[in-house]
Amino acid sequence: MIDRYLLRYFLAVMDSGNFSRAAAQCNVSQPTLSVGIAKLERELGRTLFLRTNRRVELTEAGVQFAGHARRIESEFAAAERSLGGDGAARATVRLGILSTIPADWVFRLATRFAAHLREERVEVSEGREGELLERLRRGRIDMALTLVRSDTRLESEILLTEGYSLAVPAHHPLAHEREVEGDALADNVMIVRRHCEVLAETSRHFTSRGVRPFFTARTTSDERALAMVKAGLGVTVMPDGFASSGVARPKMAGFDHVRNIGVVFGPHFDAGVETAALATLRAVVPGLADN
What we know:
Layout: H1 4-16, H2 19-26, H3 30-44, E1 49-51, E2 56-58, H4 60-84, E3 91-98, H5 103-114, E4 120-127, H6 129-138, E5 143-147, E6 156-169, E7 179-180, E8 190-193, H7 199-207, E9 215-219, H8 222-230, E10 236-239, E11 247-248, E12 251-252, E13 258-265, H9 276-284
Parallel strand pairs: 3-4, 3-5, 7-12, 8-9
Antiparallel strand pairs: 1-2, 5-13, 6-10, 6-11, 6-13
Helix pairs in contact: 1-2, 1-3, 1-4, 2-3, 5-9
């Protein structure tokens, strides 16, 4: 029988990616934690971590064991909650959020997450698509709200699909058009969202129509891109979910690219167990584009 403290040691190392930080999290010395991990590996007959001077990673066996460890610890926490009142331990779900998810959407999700803090903690981190997928594979996060592509090899679930459109100042001559032809922007300056998932497709769309604009700014911040558009510095292309007062969002004729947003699960996470965080994503995300 595996002692619970060994599961906590394992989860702490997996979550922090570092033995020293894991030891501090568990309030034990690093040698004590290392001895515990070694004992757990002996009991399981498998090596759970690959240790290098720079980082600690889960082995394939570690990834398989992680899901079991997380569920067992969640059951312990649930038992404590039922018997111990409000002060008992709560399960923690580690959620990654794509950095190009609109801030308003994140606010609405966070509001719902906050309502469940008494039963479950949500640890949120953001990152680019590739970064989130790597964290999932390494067991650093449990699930991610990110793009779901046809070649996504991890278990995933599409929750929302949205297109792309122009972002122009409200006083722009084309602001009130429902749809704008590419060549109508030939004399416009543009703002480049360097992190845009369809940057190459956007470039081809305009160059094929003879539009080779001057780029007045390049940014990796969507909030700054909107601010510069609102100020009249230029126009840009963004996912439909971004909105700001003083910015109009006409469609681009012939630009039919979309992005599928959903939840991607780490290989250690059992998507069949609906946590409060997962239930919130499934309930809230599909309606985000409607407002």
